[in-house]
What does this fold into?
Amino acid sequence: MVNLTIDGTQVTVPKSFTIYQAAEQIGIKIPVLCYAKKLLPFGACRVCLVEVEQMKGRLIPSCTTPVTEGMVVTTSSDEILKVRKTVLEFLLVNHVIECPVCDKGGECELQDLTYELEVVTNRFVGEKFDHPTDESNPFIERNMNRCVLCGRCVRVCDEIVSYGSYSFVERGFETKIATAFDRGLDCEFCGQCVSMCPVGALLPRPFKFKARPWQLKHVDSVCGYCGNGCTVTFGVKDNQVQTIRFNDKNGVNDGNLCIRGRFGYSYVNSDQRLTRPLVRKNGELVEADWEEALTAVAEGMNRGKGTGIISGARLSNEEFLLLKEVAAAAGTTNLDHSGGECYKGLTEGVQQVLGLSASTGTFPQVEDADVILSIRSDFYETHPVFGMVVNQAVKRAGAKLLVVSDKKGKFTKLPNAETLLGKPGTEVNILNAICAVLLESGKAVTEGVAGLDELKQSLTDYAPARVAEQTGVSVEAIEAAAEQLAAAEKGAILLGYGLSYTANSRELGIAAANLALLSGLADQDEAGLYVCGEKANSQGAIDLGILPGESGLGVQAMLDAAARGSLGALYIVGEDPLTSFPDGAKVEAALKGAEFVVVQDLFLSPTAQAADVVLPAASFAEKDGTFTNAERRIQRLRAGIKSPGEALTDFAIFASLLEKLGAAASAATPGETFAGLGRLNDAYAGIDLNAIGPQGVVWGGEHLQPKVRNLVPVSGREPLTTRYQLITGSALYHSGTTTTHAKGPLEAVPEPYVELSREDAAELQLAEGDQLRIKGNGAEIRLKAKIGARLPKGVLFAPNHFPGTGLNRLYKGEAAVVVELNK
Amino acid sequence: MPRMKSAAELEEFRQQILAQRDADQPCFTLCSGSACHATGCGPVAAAVEQELEKQGLTGKVRFRRTGCHGFCEQGPVAVIYPEGICYLKVKPEDVAEIITETIVNKKVVDRLLYVDPTTGEKATLENEIPFYKHQQRLILGLNLEIDPQSLEDYLAAGGYQALVKALFEMTPEQVVGEVKEAGLRGRGGAGFPSGVKWDFARNAPGEQKYVVVNCDEGDPGAYMDRSLMEGNPYAVLEGLMIGAYAIGASEGYVYIRQEYPLAVENLEVAIARAEEHGLLGQDILGSGFDFTVKVHRGAGAFICGEETSLLKSLEGMPGEPNARPPFPAIKGLWNKPTNINNVETWSNIPLIINRGAEFFNAIGTEGSKGTKIFSLVGKVNNTGLVEVPMGATLRDIIFKIGGGIPGDKAFKAVQTGGPSGGCLPADLLDTQVDFDELTRAGAMMGSGGMIVMDEDTCLVDLARYFLGFLSDESCGKCTPCREGIRQMLKILTRITNGQGKEGDIERLQDLAETTRGASLCALGKTAPNPVLSTLKHFRDEYEAHIHDQRCPSLSCKQLIAFHIDPEKCRACGACLRKCPAEAIDGGKKRIHVIDQDKCTRCGSCLDACPAAFGAVGKLSGEPVPAPVPEEQRAIG
It folds into this structure.
């Protein structure tokens, strides 16, 4: 710690602090423009200059200068004010004054500083900038005439997003911030730059001329898309979410969001939303009132052959509790939440090895990890904002990043990244081989670990040389990865799961957990193993047991039973299995085979169209409750707007349905229900809803120690050897099927596609955008070709978000599908 | 030649070289630095080779092309050894005579000797020439003895002895101690004590450390570093290696301007030769010390001479400065501890290690030790590179060494320290050149640029010129530099255009102080110096421009007028023929008259008017006399 005096007040701060941070700690606000808390010090604007007694004769930038013992700082004097004013005059010489029509007006830092420092006249004159505005994309408007060259956009895009869209070009007065070759912005469109811009140079286009900042009501909630659980703050006006506001005070995401979080909110305002219950009459779905619809549902569920309940993973914890009560009231244990049963990596895999069904650490703990192993390169795409934490660990803290994947991606492009590029479906083989090297080299942690001999025995099939031959990953890369993991002081293994990755879930969970044990990562005090669910409340679904009960059917068994005609009713909540589940034909058969189908959703999805009753549900923006994210953080959802028409929250629907089923909800409101979660999971017991603050509450504490240490032998698989194989997965711009109703993501990636390598495209004489016929598993689909450098020869990738592609007629849950291609 | 594996092998090699050399063997030494290239040393060299062959002297007479000797004004310079006879402005057609007369017949070719412009006396030997006589060329002097591409020459001149001494007789701490004790201060401009800087990098935590040579010499007219790198790259490398050993670095980078092709070439040859001989690479001379060097060519931004910008550029990023702290010694190249010094600083290291700190710190002043090389340019008779002990006065440099101001003009000011240095007037000519004295006088040492101005130079215009340069070269990162310099430039441009306003001086003062106090790096912090120093010493010139629309130096085009004195005009037509703007009206036996509306103030008429008539004159701040009426223009 360092002691210093600022404006006469003594302050003691860590020695890593800058003068600015020290002043902030005692409530002294030094004006800044280029400084941003989450970015590295830059020191360009020179607004934050202060005087330091020990550094007489010059002014000291408080945002870049570290504190030293005994420093005596003055933050305001005539001299300082004069310089600050002059700097503002300089900035205002060429800044166009368009405040009346600038969306930033009212929350513009330049405006505020000008006001605060009373810069009423300008002694200087000069040309105004005259750059054309970049409106080449639907998300971000770039008006460089308003730019003050603080570089925050450049830095956030480099330091945090690791995309590097922007750079300073030219020099001196000609300096401006530009994209590559000064073309229009074409990037991930996460909008981090927009959130960092202190002025109106970067603006969210969907929000243009929608509202003045002060007209917006701010509601803090949690993003409804992925398991990252980012805080989103709704900017609400006229019962619409007008925009997502920048908020770096709450939550785990430090104000960072991805395109889905920042621009994907629009589906809640969609005019395609279901507003009234629908009941099938004479083969047609017609509008009905709630009484009629719910009565039909209760009857349908009581027909005798039994009910199967399939839920999505975007319901709140409280809704899950009520859903379990609905299942109980309906007398069924056929309850499940993911068509791919991909959660088995956690519920069976990690559970068997470590006795846990959750990640061991929290996201921020990865910020200063020294070794990170990401299983699958698309971790960045399933959990983009956690991906940004990895970016920071790699770029700022110099972490070594290992990627075990069947394709390249953003992670593989990071500095220090080593990609173990294997054939599709062979991740387990590679992880096994790393385990084998750890054991062979004696670097493995084996104390107190059970099952060592059995594992050793099983790993004889996974000698690095053999796995290298199988997978195409070199022996050296496997050995180096083992060595790095063994040497890690603070390591993290990341594994994402979701509907797009349904093969080998259990096996991957085991292999990753074995590796976490043997490398010692599972027994660190922080970080460790992260197994992250795809959806906003995947972890909550597991925690609260939205899983088959005793002698109950899992989702695949339910579909089989329904298809056979041995299941009376299917109740599908918040999911579009026809689009999103593997083996669409089976889903189709199940929907046909079931006597009665209820779908509860926001939109009339393909599945809903096949239902007997459709119940209009509320979006995440319309409800109160809690989500548990992939690091076990319980965070509060708050309703920002009212649901359209007669749509109700899942909570309200379940409560009414319970009455129809002759039962009653255990609590009347989500708030009251929360206290009951402890009945389902001890970890939730004793947590007071009102104590869940801006940072949420991480159940089990910041770090979970393994409850058991059982190594479990696990088999990999032989890769396919066909000329072409198709894999599926998540694309950065989308999350599940919901984003296909959201304007933002849909504008970035409007239609389905299949991605393939340049080599393959050349061989097929295929150009970007050409239609490609893909045949496999007895079906054929057509997709537009997207040609890139991400995929190895012979491997094709199609994202699974889009309805109507028929992708799941080919994909039946395998790691890779043998396909034939034709133009 | 295989890699040498020990100090003994190196010494043996040196002795072999020396044994093959005869001190009495005639040697034709031709300066082949960039300046002499410009004045034609290439054809001279070809002539020498041809002539030697013709006379059957190849192999009997050594021919050595060296780096810069410093006396660029008089290039190409040739020195004939063993006598040391110095010939200036040598042309290819002089070569046969030099070889026949001086080398074969041992006679001096009088007409190629230096003639003192004041006394008319001739100087035969180099050190009899006043330009050289008053210098102390500890660093630059070696340039004369070696062919920059010849490792043998460098070894013959005692090269790598310092490295051997450091590696085998000194601990890294002792090396740092010696440099500290010597009192060497960085020659790049800031004058920070080099030993202290080394110590920071040495003590900084981290396995991987780097040493860097800053050869991004960007000051207009300054070429000390170029000449050292061109003329003696081995000395720079030797200094760098000693520094690397002291700091604990195993990799070095030379950041060198793309505009210095000869320096790049000589350096690359030197690196290759050193590598071949085991003087770079693994386990150098069996000492266990590993060191490799890479050359990086800069793309020509002035800001990249600033150390943090240079490091950014070296990393492949745009050259823009970073806030310090952290200093490069702690977090430099790729965030590793890095010691960066300029070429001249590194060149001083072998000298300090060879001769010891005491030898070095006996030279110079209390606060500045050793010698300093200046590039003496502008309105001075002997332009060139000058190496003097710290503490020499400006007067000695400009008048004794530089030979004063050409053309009977009066000395007006000297700008030291490059574009962001300061202008010192005649009454400060006795200022000693040392880091602190120059700063105290309102100028700075900088990297050693020295631009002399005579009475015809307008100091306001000079400030405008430098601010224009700096405005172009400001990287644009921080607000005060980006905008402050531009605003000063706007005001200065206005003043020199005769549109100065009341309050401009105060505005300039204010802007200068803000820019100096608030800018991020040294570029912005020193950019106001030309304004501040000219305001301090030549305020009356500013006032004349602003209040009287008069340029006292008769230099600012918008404020002057040319006028033909009707009493003196002899209607010779010389000015009329030269005028590119057809602004002169005249004819046979008719007084010539300048049409002021057409005149572009280029001054051709003034140059053209025969001195005997002296009819054309410059005016400023006073009305141009009305033209003589047409009917009265006939000359009788």
